[in-house]
Amino acid sequence: MQRYPRIRDLREDRDLTQAQVGQAVNLPQRTYAYYESGQRMVPPQVLCALADFYGVSVDYILGRTDRRN
User: Fold this and answer.
1) pTM passes above 0.85
2) Fewest Cβ atoms nearer than 10 Å: which of 7, 29, 51, 69?
3) Is residue 67 one of the residues assigned to a domain?
């Protein structure tokens, strides 16, 4: 089950690796991979860091809106 499909889409749209995104938000690659695959829930502080990194809203990442900002 993939809980956060948009974090993968955002990463792939920018041609980034999981390791690059993990480094940008201060996470090990493996931890980020767990979040991306839905094996672990993303904590609120990581959601905020990802939203800031990608320039989108947390609601967009969570799929609550289709508006990026």
Assistant:
1) yes
2) 69
3) no
69 assigned to some structural domain: no
Burial 37-62 (b: 16+ CB within 10 A, else e): eeeeebeeebbebbbeebebeeebbe
pLDDT digit string, tens, across residues 27-56: 999 999 999 999 999 999 999 999 999 999
Is 68 part of a structural domain of the chain?
no
Q: From CA 58, how far away is CA 30, in angstroms rounded?
A: 22
